[in-house]
Amino acid sequence: MTSEKNMEDLNLPNVISIDEAYGRFGTDDDGDRDASSSLSVASSAYTFRMEHGRRYHDYKIGSPFPHDEVSDENDFLLHELCLVLLDDRYYLAPIDETSLHCVVDVGTGLGLWAEGVAERFPDSQVVGIDLTPHPRSIFPNCSYMLSDASEEWVLDDPTMKFDLAHIRSLFGSVPDWAALYKNCFDNMNSGGWIEHLEMEINAQTDDAEVPADSQIKFLSSFAHTHMTVASGRDFGISFGMRKLIEEAGFVDVQEKRLKVPLGPWASDPKLKEVGRLCERFYKTGLQGWLMHVCTRSLGGNCYRTKTLSITIISYPSMTSDYAPASRR
């Protein structure tokens, strides 16, 4: 995956010191969207649907997460967060830039990473794969393929092999991780690298200040015990990806966990910015991550899911009393 040396270059502390001037920030509520909305929107190519004020796409069964303006903002925040965390590097794998000829971005989303790499390395060919249709890139060396990455890859150039496969933050989205990793392996040049950066849904503290039954701790447990089972998509892929990557055939697999603060409370300027972006990423993403699975698979309703989202964001340390199902 990535070299230990490149990870150490990030100079991130084991324990994050707190900025004494940090104070809690208020939570903005964007208002209640139309909770009863449920209609289908047909395009010339693909079908989208509206549920509870959010837009979803149905191609290849679709994703349990929305695809709309709010999710676009979430993608932008994640991209900026990763660039700050990794010191403006798009990858940490020890690849000589002169050897970076073909790159694939699996689950490319808005294509921010793919187009960033295409711009920074104009001699490389970059392919972004996603279930959502994407407009033509402004960079001539970047293209997109509409496909489920866990199914067979049908590339425009069947002889193309990749030097780097990049995956980022696809928790809860992939139906078959083993097949996805195998496709990466089968479509790579000998000596190529795979780099997977995943958000670990496992809230931790450097002290015992947050109680075990708090909202934020409840959410971590709920994602693994309920959402993964109900959706058939792994929300805890960060815990098992190393084993699956090795089983796909990759060697010299290395793993590093990086602490990411939730909120701008760190005294270190870099981690303060990372925390600020992470808090916005969390707040813009949480309702979308919960809504489809809670209402469609767990028997919950829109109001309770929205209330849960607001409560977790507003009072992360408060004791949770949420029951996953509320079907009458």
Automatic annotation (TrEMBL):
Coiled coil: none annotated. It holds the Pfam family Methyltransf_23. InterPro entries: SAM-dependent_MTases_sf. It comes from the Eukaryota. This is Methyltransferase domain-containing protein. It comes from Exophiala sideris.
